Amino acid sequence: HDVRLVVYGHGTGEELSGLPIHRSAPLPFVKRTKAGPSLAKPLLDAMLARTLRRVCITHAIDAVSAHNYEGLLVALMVQRRPIVYHAHNAMQDELPAYFGGAEWARHFGSWLDCALPRRADVCVVPHARLKAYLIECGCRGANIVVIPPSIDAIGSTRLARVDAPGVLYTGNLDPYQNLSLLAAAMESVRKTQPDARLTIVSADPLEGSPFAGADWVDHVAAADREVLRGALGEDVVVVCPRVSWSGFPMKLLNAMSAGQAIVCCAASAHPLTHDLDGMIVDDTNPHSLAAAIIRMRADAVLRARLGKAARASFERNHGAKPFASRLNEVYRAAASA
Questions:
Q1: 8-state DSSP, 141
Q2: Largest CB tally within 10 Å, which of 103, 194, 221, 291?
Q3: β-pairing, 64-67 with 21-23?
Q4: C-alpha span between 287 and 148 (Å, rounded)
């Protein structure tokens, strides 16, 4: 296949994919890369659509792979068919997080979910719950394919176990990550285990987050893969407090591939089974999350058992070859329809 990436005119990090990259024209006053709405997004999307249209014509593109809502919106603006929409979330679930949980944002998100995904030729979703939701929104079930996501394995299962492991959170600090729950849980943990510390590996600053000013937080202000590999190469308790149900936290796959013990809220625990390859807790109760962290920190045997099982689940369900094979089938079918 001739695969080409059509992306915004600005970004961060090195371009390591080896694929041809087509960037839209940059806007000198726009540098933001965080998820969520912004005043510049409509203009950025219009410029991206212009670039996509040019690439489709110049290179005789057979199918457009549209990632997330803006990718789908841009593809629909260009109207090149077929469109394979990779649904990473539902707007009814995620959009309110950027507006303080406002009800109008939930209603607008529901309208988007009913109006846009059905216009794609194929929807690829990471789990069955999102498929069921999109069917409720009017998408044809036959046009939705569930493919659990995959990543390159990041680490080893042979961790040197310690008596007092740290607690680790990786990823962005956006509102939908529900970090206030983790902050409250850690306050509770430290009443029982005063030595407990939380390490946050994120390119986002702590200012404005629930962890700003906490003396029990270590912030690793980086997001590259080697830093993440180092953090996941130690005996830690990985925590995912996210309760946004529609997405798929890739941080879980990183931790699973590294053979780490994971504590996760139920809404986002799609690849995990409670007490088999992770510890799943109530979505809204910081004491439940704290109790699981305390138990994990105190029990090296439990961490080893869950970490080993998590690595096995990753290899069984999220391997790169099966994932690529299923995607290949989707694109061949779409291009020949």
A1: G
A2: 291
A3: unpaired
A4: 31
